[in-house]
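[Meeting: bench + compute handoff]

Bench side (C.D.) handed over the final construct sequence. Compute side (W.E.) agreed to return the predicted structure before the next meeting so the bench team could plan truncations. Sequence as handed over:
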Amino acid sequence: MVRRRGPGTGPRPAIFQATKHRYGEASVLNAIGEALRAMGRDGEAAQRHRLALAIAAETGDEDERGRAAAALESLG
C-alpha cells in the first residue's frame, strides 16, 4: 500500500532540502502555503510562508520574499 502525504504534512519539501536548492525550497513552500490557505488551513499556511520568507531572505530571492510577505499579511 502506498500512502500519499498531503501538502501540509511535512515542514519542508524534502527534494529541495536534499539537493540544497534553497530557491526551489522557498518557492515550493509558498505554493504549499497557498494550497493550505485555499483549504482553510490558515495556521499551517502561515507556517509554510514564514519558512519561505526566512529562506528567501537568506538567499536574497526578492520575488519569493515578497510573495511570502504578502501572503502573511493577508493571513493577518
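W.E. noted at the follow-up: The helical segments are 14-18, 22-38, 42-59, 62-75. C.D. will use this when planning the next construct.
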